[in-house]
Amino acid sequence: MSLQFVVNKPRGPLGWWILAPIVGITVGLLWWSAIGTNLSISGFVAGLPWIADFIDRMLPPNFAFMQRLIRPAIETVQIALWGTLLGIVLALPICFFAARNLTPHGWVFHALRQVLNVMRGINEIILALIFVAAVGLGPFAGVLAIAVHGAGMLGKFFAEAIEEIDEGPLDALRAAGAGTLQRIVFGVLPQVLPAWIGVVLYRFETNIRVSTVLGMVGAGGIGFELISSMKLFAYEDTAACVLVILALVLLADLISSKLRAMIR
Amino acid sequence: MIEIRGLAKSYGDHQALKDVTLSIRPGEFVVVLGPSGAGKSTLLRCINRLVEPSAGEIMVDGTSLSSNRRDLRLLRRNVAMIFQQHNLVKRLSVLKNVLVGRMADLSPILSSLQLFPEADVRIAHHCLEQVAMSHKARSRADALSGGEQQRVGIARALAQQPKFMLADEPVASLDPKTSRTVLTYLKQSCKESNIAVLCNLHQIDYALEFAERVVGLSAGEVVYDGPPDGVSGDIIRRIYPGLDDPNVLDAAQRLTERRRAAEAVIAAAAANPGSIGERA
Question: Is the pLDDT of residue B280 over 60?
């Protein structure tokens, strides 16, 4: 069997030599980052027994402890539910003006996209720390943190769905003399609703995952049990927490993918 | 009576429309012929100001309508539009798509809550009957065939109860049989309600068959405005510069001659009613 190497020579005057700087810069960057992060294979190998020791202490999981996790687990789901809902409420009024095809002015579009970027740019844990300071320890701070971060993401995806609609029906509504509200309700919403529902379900799934760790900074949910069991070196309890979190995440994933399949 | 005076539109250096002046009588069925890029769509979209014209005036019943909010609303209430791609909202029911035609007069809040006055729902049903689509009122728009969707598009335009209807290549994406059906419904229902129609077409044969008046547009200018009988091979060549397809020119010539002959027969019969039996 004879093989032939079928690859076009890179365009430009440098030809194959263009690869030299690309490879050089990539290797350099990764080397530099490896030093910065103390990357070390020997360190990892030396740590393996300790990881085994940690897992050993976690086993067997304390199943009796799970009974005490039911309430925090339910609270976690409740945080995700209200966090998602408030995120939608925050995103809705923004998204129409943050869509290139509906925005009244270019600068409104750019300004709102930046607002959404800022909301999305701050991690939920950091937002939770801020809201714990504002409204005190507890799940409500978690709800607010998830709502703000989620609104940033939902607003962006809602707006992008609006940008992808067929503008023909909007022309038809305009030609029929329909007002702005009517154009949105009858021209935009029917077209974006399936995409929006998909995004919301995906966001809900993500929010379940996020709200399992919010408790670490005192913003409610199962994360609080996780962190306190570790601080007490009760690793069997920690294992129980991890199992419950895993079950929550898998369940959320299953339900949302089933629902998303139903819309299509 | 719709009057268009000195309508012009330019995109940068490109002049899509140059000084178009037309007046259309109530109930008249006018077909605009012209090659792609001649400005047919631009003409129609400038009339209802989906595209803002660079110059010119649109007058409805002697009132000049500018582009301020109130005039625009008045203009669009009186001028309905039919699109090549139907432009129905696919996920809404046929009935609701037709109700879109009523929206200019409906409360934005109530209609957004899906509440419509019974009188308007009756009008929508009646318009669906006019295009023989009332049996599909509850279907979703995307469940219909192309021809059916266009008939719903006509019903939506009729529901506006307009004085004037713009049809932008309404049959360009339909097969010949469906095209004929759709054009027949369009002409018939507009005659019933005395609505004037300005219809862009690509098909010369349909134009000659359905039009009461033909407007030939070439490079943004009106090069012919008259009865379909007058559309000779020379006129076709003027509308479509560079067209040298003997088949098309021949067909147009023959169609026109046949039409003239048929009209002569009718005229003779009208002048001499006694002889109609002999002729038959």
Answer: no
The β-bridge relationship of strands B221-226 and B213-218 is: antiparallel
- Cα separation, B7 vs B16, in Å, equals 10
Residues forming a β-bridge with B30: B198, B213
Which residues have a Cβ under 8 Å from the Cβ of B216 and sit 6 or more positions away? B32, B33, B34, B222, B223, B224, B225, B231, B235, B238, B239
List of chain A residues with pLDDT < 50: none
Least confident segment among A236-240, B212-216, B268-272: B268-272
Asked if residues B209 and B201 have their Cβ atoms less than 8 Å apart, the reply is no
CB A103 within 8 A of CB A97: yes
Looking up tokens 């625009």 gives: B72
Is pLDDT above 80 for B272? no
Chain A residues in contact with B156 (beta carbon < 8 A): 172, 176
Residue-level pLDDT at A264: 63
* Cβ B138 vs Cβ B95: under 8 Å: yes
Distances A8 to A17, A20, B2, B171 between C-alpha atoms, Å: 14, 17, 62, 46
pLDDT at A188: 93
A105 CA to chain B: closest CA distance, Å?
Answer: 18
Residues A87 and A149: their CA atoms lie apart, in Å, by 8
CA distance A138 to A180: 42
pLDDT on residue A144:
92
For residue B46, pLDDT over 70 is answered with: yes
The answer to whether the CB of B18 falls within 8 A of the CB of B9 is no
Q: Which residue of B has its CA nearest to A168?
A: B87
Distances (CA, A) of B72 to A139, B25, B197: 52, 21, 19
SS3 content of chain B, % helix, strand, coil (to 5): 50, 20, 30
Distances (CA, A) of A33 to A24, A40, A42, A44, B88: 14, 12, 17, 17, 55
The tokens for B168 are: 């932008």
Which of chain B's residues have a Cβ under 8 Å away from the Cβ of A181? 108-109, 112
Tokens of B33: 């012929």
Average pLDDT of chain B, as a whole number: 85
